[in-house]
Write a structure and sequence with these properties.
CATH topology of the largest domain: Immunoglobulin-like
Strand content: over 45%
CATH class of the largest domain: Mainly Beta
Largest sheet: 7 strands, mixed
Distance between the termini: 132 Å
CATH architecture of the largest domain: Sandwich
Helix content: under 10%
Number of helices: 3
Shape: elongated
Length: 779
């Protein structure tokens, strides 16, 4: 039982302690007040424990409040002492204590009444705490918290977003308006009750004007533009903002009202190299009797002398134009009797300009302008630039430089040139200047190209002499540039070189390969090193001259396993004339290990001597090929290892086995197929010289045999067989070895033969009249 009471007591103690910690609090006041107002700020104490003293700091916005005198303790603490101080800006230190350590009476309610005064900044501001210390009558610390408060200061805030409104230059008689924005940043309505006198300015809206919190209003400003003046006025708003500095915020209003007296240079347009008229307009609210101004002329736009044309606004006035430098045109107008020009608007005079420029819009800038009156002086308010729009052709070449590089004198080069008119007027190309000895153009003059169009011409370059070539082609036209230049360059050489003749060669035998000299100049001697492919070798002692070089001496030597040096020279001034000449025959053995294919000989250190013993060797323009192929002894197109019919007579067509009809007897009747008109003669039957037995000639009607037509014969893709007397029933195709390879039973006038190999076939054609035989050649 004792243990049970102990547990209960412990629990109660913990509960009391925890409750004490949670229930001792100091509460700051929360309230609303006006600006510049004294007010009480109450601080309450809610306590569960006995409290004898307390100290804390209150932090606040010093721009919003200030501390005044008369602070008091409530009756709960009438036996205590209150000390209030201001140790630093924005901090109030509060101390409540008892010399006898007496406890503050009661457990809740106001304990302190502070005296504060609001300033002139409206808004809601927090009142916070710092450095809280609470003690008991036993002088022990007591845990406590502070609930912070807030003070809402009520009032408007005048905020003018602009400090100046400048109307700028205002023409007489115009009615410009501007706005000024007034904003209320406070939490009570802002009242604008009036303004000071701001003549010649005015505000369009009527006063009073109310602006809700956090709102703004645009006020319309007017200016009186009835006469010339330059004015600056300051507007002040009468308002209910309590802050003395905000209350007197102002806006400066400015305006310069002027009389419109303007010189305007007009605009003109036209084509290149034609006179274009430009008007000069003067608009004046005030009278004038003289003027002077300069116009800056764009490059290549010139003044047309004596082109001034005067309007009826002149009344005995003199107007002149003169160039004071190449690009400055000065105009001067005056009256010797100080008469005013007539009217208040319109053209005073015009002048002409002649452009020689590309298409475009060019400014006519006016400078140093004055507009004068004898008594008013210079009354010019503004001067405006003019412009001249030019429509001109513009020639664009697809290229300005053609470099042909290295060109043999024996060849020509061609290039297509596009001539485009990128301008805005018709282009006329009336002359093309160039060196006609080497260059030619297929152009017909004059060449007319409309704006946005093009023409293509072909340039042909035909070299005449060796050396460097550099010439210009000049296209003369009516554009601003007058001409466009196309530069053509090349390095021309006379081709003199050696190469192997294209030849088919065979493995495991000696092949005779000719060296060809291609020369544009007469040649007295040739020397070169030739590098043979791997597997090729040559017996230098067996090198031979050709018939064309029989009068020359020939020396050959082996440099290494694959390289040979060959010298062909003349000791009696013999020459090799220009052309393509076989000069040397090389005996080249090709080993059996060499793969089939195309091979090149490499020529190095080539020296070709002309009649003056000058080396004229040039770039090689072509190369010959040694084509290593399987041997075809009878030249029928079928290699020996696949050719079953050797020694085919030259020119005869063979099948895939290399056999011509003159070499095959398909039906074994003793007559070769080229003479056998009766295929498939039965074995053992006696035939005539045409290879026909009595059986194979069993045709009921010779007329049918003669009526059969095969065409085309030889055939490539489609064969047509027709009979004029009896319908064909079927056609059988036999190879020259007697094998039936095809049979057709319909569509005899369009028989597809793509599936047949090249060679000779015997056709048996069946009808109700009998059978007839025809021979067909398939290409």
């Amino acid at each position: 039982m004792k243990a049970f009471y102990t547990v209960i007591a412990s629990f109660f103690l913990v509960f009391i302690i925890q409750s004490t910690e949670a229930q001792n609090s100091i509460v700051f006041d929360t309230k609303e007040i006006g600006t510049a107002t004294n007010f009480d700020f109450d601080i309450s104490l809610n306590n569960a424990d006995e409290i004898a003293g307390l100290q804390f700091d209150i932090t606040f916005n010093a721009a919003v409040f200030e501390l005044v005198n008369g602070h008091q303790l409530a009756s709960r603490a009438d036996s205590h002492t209150l000390a209030v101080s201001n140790p630093s800006e924005g901090v109030i230190r509060v101390l409540v204590y008892s010399d006898a350590n007496a406890a503050i009476r009661g457990n809740s309610g106001v304990i302190i009444n502070l005296k504060l005064k609001s300033k002139t900044l409206p808004g809601t501001f927090n009142v916070n705490d710092d450095a809280l210390v609470v003690s008991s009558p036993e002088q022990t610390a007591v845990s406590a918290t502070i609930e912070t408060g807030a003070v809402k200061v009520l009032g408007p805030i005048l905020n003018i977003t602009s400090s100046e409104v400048n109307f700028g230059r205002v023409p007489i008689g115009s009615g410009p308006q501007r706005t000024v924005s007034i904003k209320n940043d406070g939490n009570l309505d802002l009242a604008l009750t009036g303004i000071n006198t701001i003549t010649p300015f005015s505000i369009q809206e009527s006063f009073p004007i109310s602006i809700a919190p956090n709102s703004s209003k645009n006020l319309t400003l007017n200016v009186n533009s009835g006469s010339k003046y330059n004015s600056s006025e300051t507007v002040r708003f009468q308002n209910n903002d309590a802050d003395p500095l905000r209350k007197i915020k102002t806006v400066v209003l400015k305006a310069e009202v002027f009389a419109v007296n303007e010189i305007r240079i007009g605009a003109g347009n036209g084509e290149i190299n034609t006179a274009i008229e430009i008007p000069v307009v003067i608009e004046n609210m005030e009278p004038f009797n003289g003027f002077q101004f300069d116009i800056k002329l764009p490059n290549d736009i010139t003044y047309v002398e004596n082109s001034l044309v005067f309007s009826d606004r002149l009344d005995g006035h003199s107007v002149s134009a003169s160039l004071i430098n190449p690009t400055t045109l000065r105009f001067l107008g005056y009256s010797s009797s100080n008469k005013n020009f007539k009217g208040t608007a319109g053209t005073v005079f015009s002048f002409q300009l002649k452009p020689n420029v590309s298409s475009g819009n060019y400014p006519l800038r006016i400078e140093e302008a004055i507009l004068t009156h004898t008594s008013l002086g210079d009354i010019l308010s503004d001067a405006y630039n003019g412009a001249i729009q030019i429509n001109a052709p513009n020639l664009s070449l697809s290229t300005s430089l053609i470099s042909y590089g290295t060109v043999p004198i024996t060849e020509t080069r061609e290039t297509t040139i596009r001539l485009s008119n990128s301008g805005s007027a018709t282009l006329n190309i009336n002359e093309v200047m160039y060196d006609a000895t080497a260059l030619s153009l297929d152009v017909k003059l004059p060449l007319v190209i409309e704006a946005g169009q093009f023409e293509e011409v072909k340039l042909t370059f035909t070299p005449k002499t060796a050396g460097n070539f550099s010439k210009a082609i000049s296209f003369r036209h009516n554009g601003a540039d007058v001409q466009n230049v196309l530069n053509v360059s090349a390095t021309i050489f006379s081709p003199n070189y050696v190469l192997v003749e294209n030849v088919k060669s065979y493995k495991d035998q000696i092949n005779k390969i000719q060296i060809v000299l291609k020369n544009n100049d007469a040649v007295k001697g040739v020397q070169f090193d030739v590098e043979l492919p791997i597997g090729f070798r040559m017996d230098v002692d067996a090198i031979r001259k050709t018939e064309s070089t029989s009068d020359f001496s020939l020396v050959g030597s082996q440099q290494n396993n694959t390289a040979y040096r060959i010298i062909l020279y003349s000791s009696d001034n013999s020459i090799i004339a220009t052309g393509d000449t076989a000069i040397i025959e090389l005996p080249v053995f090709i080993e059996d290990t060499v793969a089939l294919g195309d091979y090149e000989f490499q020529f190095l250190n080539t020296v070709i001597s002309d009649v003056n013993n000058k080396n004229i060797s040039s770039t090689i323009l072509e190369k010959g090929l040694i084509i290593v192929a399987l041997k075809d002894s009878d030249g029928d197109g079928v290699a020996d290892d696949e050719d079953t019919c050797a020694d085919t007579p030259a020119g005869e067509t063979v099948d895939s086995n290399g056999c011509a009809t003159s070499q095959v007897d398909s039906d074994g009747d003793g007559v070769t197929d080229d003479k056998d008109t009766c295929a498939d003669t039965p074995a053992g039957e006696t035939v005539d010289s045409n290879g026909c037995s009595d059986t194979s000639l069993r045709v009921k009607d010779e007329v049918f045999d003669e009526s059969i037509f095969l065409f085309p014969n030889p055939v490539l893709n489609i064969l047509s067989i027709e009979s004029e007397v009896s319908p064909i029933l079927k056609v059988q195709f036999y190879s020259i070895v007697g094998e039936k390879v095809k049979e057709i039973k319909s569509n005899f006038n369009s028989i597809i033969t793509n599936d047949l190999s090249r060679g000779i076939y015997l056709l048996q054609i069946y009808s109700d009249k009998g059978i007839t035989n025809k021979r067909l050649i398939k290409n």
